[in-house]
Amino acid sequence: MKKVSLTGIKPTGDLHIGNYFGAIKPALELAKEYDARYFIADYHALNTMKDPKELNTTIRQVAAGWLASGLDPDKVIFYRQSSIPEVFELTTMLMSFTAKGLMNRAHAYKAAVQENNEKNDDTDAGINMGLFTYPILMAADIIIFDSDIVPVGKDQVQHIEMAQDIAQVINANYGTQILKIPQAGVQEDSAVIPGLDGRKMSKSYNNVIPLFAPEKALRKTIMRITTNSQTVEEPKNPDECQIFQLYKLFTDENEQTSLASVYRAGGMGWGNAKEELFRVVNRCLSPIRERYDAIMADIPALDKILEQGAEKARPIAAATVKRFRKIAGID
Ligand code: TRP
């Protein structure tokens, strides 16, 4: 039997190429080796997104984004967290075994507390129980599908360790491996994707290249990349230039070698380099954008895909809950 990988996707709108190369593409690769499952963590999003329209749209955008990027719902399981009520039943079960002190140590909660303290605000101002218990719901997401591996960024490793802790406490209590202990799949050497200003591409730096921007807007964004004051004639170093770093993501070695030699020879200005970058980015993103637009134009069909995914996921989730109930004496 293949091992199970589980990817949790927090719905945030406006995916950018940093998300695509840093998270989406490597996560989709897992489907080659694993029995891969992907889900939209919409109840996690509710902790911070209280505008129903925004949340509703964002869930569809992010689902469409993953499908357009190549997620094949026939080969993997793709569903919404909110469609699997068993996840919330397991969350309640896990709560009984989770030390409050463990949650006190969660980075996100601690950061929120520290911010309040620095502002001389009440310690728990603005902190809801969803934020405080976030790692327990996440542990349930993972444990319910007997996940072997969970690909995450470094910021999420603590959450996986908490899921391990909670599962171990339960296994120790019942004296049997009732729950599978998940492992974090951290991508150690994932390249940092530079943004328009050369810093890591991130929404919080406002330096992103959106994944689904129309062609014109895409070109405009690429033209905004910051460059130094080298003249057209000056030879340029491709290794010190974010235009070239981005170019590498979209091209093969031949194209890279040839642009690098043009850089080194001098005679290519930044404007032309950006045009060249736009050409290859657009070449790659056009088909993805077209798929995305088509999916977003038929929301009922999209919802059906997610519903069908939930139908595949629920029996697996129900089996875990049943197993737990039995061993806990609640059968
Ligand atoms: N916390 C994850 C994030 O912020 C999203 C998430 C929720 C998740 N549940 C998960 C990731 C389970 C992996 C497994 O990105």
Give a list of the ligands: tryptophan
Low-confidence segments, ≥5 residues, pLDDT <50?
none
Question: What oligomeric arrangement do these chains adopt?
Answer: single chain
Query: Secondary-structure element order, as H and E?
Result: EHEHHEHHHHHEHEHHHHH
Main sheet summary = 3 strands, parallel
Please explain how this structure is put together.
It is a single chain. The chain has 331 residues and is mainly α. Helices cover 55% and strands 7% of the residues. It contains 14 helices and five strands. The protein has a three-stranded parallel beta sheet with strand order 1-2-3. Strand 1, helix 1 and strand 2 form a beta-alpha-beta unit. Helix 3 crosses helix 13, helix 10 runs antiparallel to helix 13 and helix 11 packs across helix 13. It is globular and about 75 Å long. The model has no long low-confidence stretch (mean pLDDT 95). Tryptophan binds next to strand 1, helix 8 and strand 4.
Summarize the helices and strands and which ones pair or pack.
Layout: E1 4-9, H1 17-29, E2 35-40, H2 42-46, H3 52-68, E3 77-80, H4 85-95, H5 100-104, H6 107-118, H7 129-132, H8 134-143, E4 149-152, H9 157-174, E5 183-186, H10 215-223, H11 242-249, H12 253-265, H13 270-296, H14 299-328
Parallel strand pairs: 1-2, 2-3, 4-5
Bound molecules: tryptophan.
